[in-house]
## 1
Amino acid sequence: MKQQNKGFTLIEMVVVIVVLGVLVAVATPKFINLKRDAHVTSLQTIEGSLQSANALIFTKAVLQGAEKVGRANPRRRDLGQVQLDDTTVVQTNFGYLSNSGRNDNRSIANLETILNVDSITRLRNNRTVAASGFGMDAKNRNEFHFFPAGFNRTQLCRLEYESAQAPGEQPQYRVITDDC
């Protein structure tokens, strides 16, 4: 009686490994988009930092009697101010963080301090991008947008922040990730 070997030959094993390797190489990019995930996570992180900072700012605004000072009209200039520490004074609208002017350098410096980020770049036009950190564009005195590094203000990869519009209202946060 002749004995038969059971199992796979070396050539069959190599073919299976090559086919699996090709499938992994083709399918992996569709399931794992690490760059997009990193951009979305950075926007969610800045959103959480902004929410935490706003909680602190509102608490200080209440203690300093500035929670009802503000304006619903973004063109009016009567903003509140909150002294956070010896060197940081922020503009507020009904107790929450606001912008003192369109892309004001002082606002950007305050945001870097408040959010504890290394750099926020003022986006001056549609071609400007932040090389590192975040880009910021102020739509008006009530609303600003944060962009991850490498994005300009026309792209839909941003955190939109709108300060409170009346006493007792909360600020609005919107993470837009269509182009991330």
## 2
Amino acid sequence: MKDTGISDRLNSLFVNRLNINFDNYEESILDSPLLGNEIGLAARDLIYVFFDIEKEFNIQIPQHDIASGGFNTFNSICEVISKQIKIKLLEPVK
């Protein structure tokens, strides 16, 4: 089940950074590779989005999530964000 709050905030990042609004596309595009022909982002675009996400959600995305394909589609990024937020909520307060 997709968290619509995370999805909406992530979509806003894409709109603000890259002028791509996923709300204007069919739902199937959310599982399409961001670097593929359909969406056609450059690798540097994803780097910008990566840093925007870490700042917006106040999380750190581990390298293994990126290496395992967790930063490949809109939906997979939503899952990574959700997972990192849950981990952060379970961390003891310092």
## 3
Amino acid sequence: MYLDEERRKREGAMRGLKRKAMEDDLEALRKKKVVLTEVCTSLQKDADELAEKAENKAGTLMAQMITKSNTLRRRHKEKCLELKNVETELQQKGNELKLMQY
């Protein structure tokens, strides 16, 4: 009886540690999501501003600004894809945590 009780205590403590680790992972993913959202917004805004400025320029300066704008748009696209992956992972881990609690 005593050994069974000790084993249950250890198993309960292990489940608690696993749940805590999962909660920490979720919090880190939430923070990463916020940062990526801000980065995506900023990249899009900067790309739009460069494209607008390029409309008023001519020649090589316009080409340089359009190139920079396109580079920012490419990075924006990459970061948005990364954001979608983080959101998917966040959803999966959230579901795992719900199942773990029951």
## 4
Amino acid sequence: MVHLFGLPLWKRMALLGQRGLPLDVYGIVNHHKVSKEIWDRVKLLMQGTKLSLQEKEYKLYDEFDKFSFVKGETLYQYYWIFSQLINNMNVINMSMRPVQVNTKFLNSLPREKEHVCEGREVG
């Protein structure tokens, strides 16, 4: 068998025209076909990631809008839940102005002092 890879392109084409494609070329072509199919699937999956990322963003915005203080939770618990929400937003590069975040945190607190427990008796 003649190795085609060391020959100039015009000689390779002439030899291939005389006897057809060598078997190893079929294997390479088949491999490339499978690679293309895999790449097409990866591209589809990446589009799905883009959509699910957008869905996560909508969900987090919705959680942010609906976030409020739950009666009976401590100030620490309230802060912890709020900071987890903000961290989740930062993980997927959602941008919120600090003024928005601070205003939401403060406006979601109850107006009356006795509703906030600080881990000790409220009197």
